[in-house]
Design a protein that fits this description.
InterPro entries: Amino_oxidase, FAD/NAD-bd_sf, Flavin_monoamine_oxidase. It comes from Arthrobacter terricola. The protein contains 13 helices and 21 strands. The chain has 480 residues and is of the alpha+beta class. Strand 9 and strand 10 form a beta hairpin. It binds flavin-adenine dinucleotide.
Amino acid sequence: MSSKRNLPPNHCVITYLFRNLSGLAVGNPSGDESKVGTNLEANHDVVVVGAGPAGLATAYYLRDLGLDIQVLEAGSDIGGRTLSRDLAGAPVNTGAMFIYRGTRAESLAAELGIRTAPFHPGTYGVHVDGVTSVASSTAEVVDALPLPDESKQALAEFMESVSREYNANTSEGAITENAAGLVNETVAERLAHLPGPARSVIETAVRGGAVGDATQLSAKYALRYLASYIVHEQDNRLYPVDGMQSLPRALAGRCGSTTTITTNARVSSVRERDGLFEVLADHGGESKVLTARHVVMAVPAPLLAGISVGLPDWKLEALKAAETPGSTTLTVAANVDGLEGIADWSFVSTVGKKFDAIINPLPGTVPPDGIVRFTCYGNSAGFLPGIENDEARINEWVEELLEVAPELRGRIAGAVAATWEHCFSVLSPKRNDALPELRRSIGNLHFAGDYTSETAGSHGAYEEGHRVAQLLRAELSVPA
Ligand SMILES: Cc1cc2nc3c(=O)[nH]c(=O)nc-3n(C[C@H](O)[C@H](O)[C@H](O)COP(=O)(O)OP(=O)(O)OC[C@H]3O[C@@H](n4cnc5c(N)ncnc54)[C@H](O)[C@@H]3O)c2cc1C
């Protein structure tokens, strides 16, 4: 197919590896069709800003059109918030953890041959005031907590009602149409009647599972990010055993030979001039100017206004509804050989700690080396720049984990911290209302990311990459 454009001829794509600024390959496990442009001063059919799930999905779903697509990534690696790292000999996820069933992330994973294991929780847990209670029944979990009787009773009833609501609004792990009305209610409304100690247990669990607080999270998405853990849902999460980043890496490897992905290329401005976009990027300390007929903005929502020059008021207003708070994670590898029960932990919310919850993505599984990896989600802690390399602060977090799980003392095999300025696009009723404006293109300037999707998460970002690719296909392709 050819493109409906009137641009100078495309430049040649002349090298064949993803390359970061220092010239190091950043990896293309699929081994096919990888490429990086060395000449950024060229014209393109499409420039995609950001090589996270949304940006890469956009390029992937356009791969058969022969379009000249340049994906510009500010960081030294692709995948955005799906970054995986090695910890004690296995991949761990420092950002996104799970592929949700029934979403585009699941279908893409299948299409791309990504290896997954089901998340099969058999327990739920709460830590409060020095007591960690993890059990298979909600009644047992609540019973062991050091809370006043009134709070225990209210908590047990609340969890029962959450389970009932979950069962009424989901089927085989997926949220059904029944839940549509819940999108306009927040969780806070459901918690208002709880006594303080019971409320803080649930508020912490909401934070741990969903980043936003109870005044932000819609009751619809509380089904996925709170209730599913309480009911031990068996059918809604998959764990990518080679790391969450394996998915964007596979996408990048299959984008097609006319797509170029350039890392260490930070876009500082995008502006329209005479029907073409001028994209200013800093690459290797030099300022480069690219032109493109179409630009796709696939960066976190809070960055958009600083990059796209002259966004209209309606877009700026909509972007205000797309809150994307920061978060810090700590993943700890520990040898659990001979320890009873701890490998069965799945989700433990932790009241009053630096982190709000601990997730073990492979509950019930002890690998041959005995090492289990627990990720602590510091969503209340927010963005903590520098913590990744700050041993003292990492040790403080590890110590807090050991207060929750004292049996792990002396068994820690390693820890990795990561911090995210923009973690997750909050699933709030107000963002839901703003979705049409968040999605709406401005001429040939398009918007794709977790923030333009109903569901947020990487699945939302992949879905939005697909949506924008369809839009571009209609614009740029003519039948052969
Ligand atoms: C701690 C944590 C836990 C999460 N858990 C899950 C989960 O379990 N499941 C799930 O599906 N999702 C989860 N998510 C959310 C998921 O990671 C995001 O929704 C998803 O990555 C969003 O994709 P995106 O492409 O919109 O943005 P991003 O992944 O943020 O990608 C945007 C890219 O743009 C680049 N960029 C930014 N500015 C510029 C610029 N000026 N020029 C060029 N490039 C730029 C960034 O470096 C980045 O690579 C989690 C996220 C975090 C942080």
